[in-house]
Amino acid sequence: MDWAALLGWLERVLGGHGPSAWWIVVAAVLLFAAYEVVRSRVRRWLVARRLRAQTTRALGAEAWAARLLEHGGYRIIGSQVTTAYELLVDGRPLSIMVRADYVVERAGRRFVAEVKSGELAPSLETAATRRQLLEYGIAFAVDGVLLVDAEAGAIHEVVFLSRGQTRTKSRHAALAPF
User: Fold this and answer.
1) How many CB atoms within 10 Å of residue 126?
2) What range defines the domain where residue 28 resides?
3) CA distance 115 to 53
4) Is the pTM of this model over 0.70?
């Protein structure tokens, strides 16, 4: 930045009104800078507060979901279970790690269970939730996928039907995602 040019411009704008005009400009610049610093810090604080509230809500929902699954006849095999699956991208392998809330079992069938809370997340109308459940079904190679709406106290078994597959086919065939 060319400081000499900036000072020349300020002198022309102020028209030689003396030092008091300079102090007004300096004070205005400092006041604006202070406002921006405070606004930025308040915004960060609000975002952090919202994230803490969401985390607290989610942890509470997961604890409640464990009891809900057990009352629904599911036996919890593991919580916060991680696995990986492989992709080939232009012929090169890429390993993707995923972590599901629960792996459960009932009547000899194994399920991956994902707990959701809030207004939008538990809905299968939410694309991110559908994609996550589909990914978990593939990655964990389970018999089914469960969406647990902890706040509503509901457990939904989600079956992904492949193209051309109808609901009248066998239940086990419908579990194949492709």
Assistant:
1) 15
2) 3-48
3) 16
4) no
User: How many domains in the chain?
Assistant: 2
167 Cβ contact list (under 8 Å, min separation 6): 161, 174
3-state DSSP assignment of residue 142:
coil
Mean pLDDT score, 156-164: 82
Are the C-beta atoms of 146 and 175 separated by less than 8 Å? no
The answer to whether residues 175 and 144 touch, using CB atoms and an 8 Å cutoff, is yes
| pLDDT score for 162 | 77
- For residue 138, being part of any structural domain is answered with yes
Confidence of residue 122 (pLDDT cuts 50, 70, 90): low
Residues in the chain, overall count: 178
Answer yes or no: do 16 and 93 share one domain.
no
Residue 14 CB neighbours (<10 A): 15
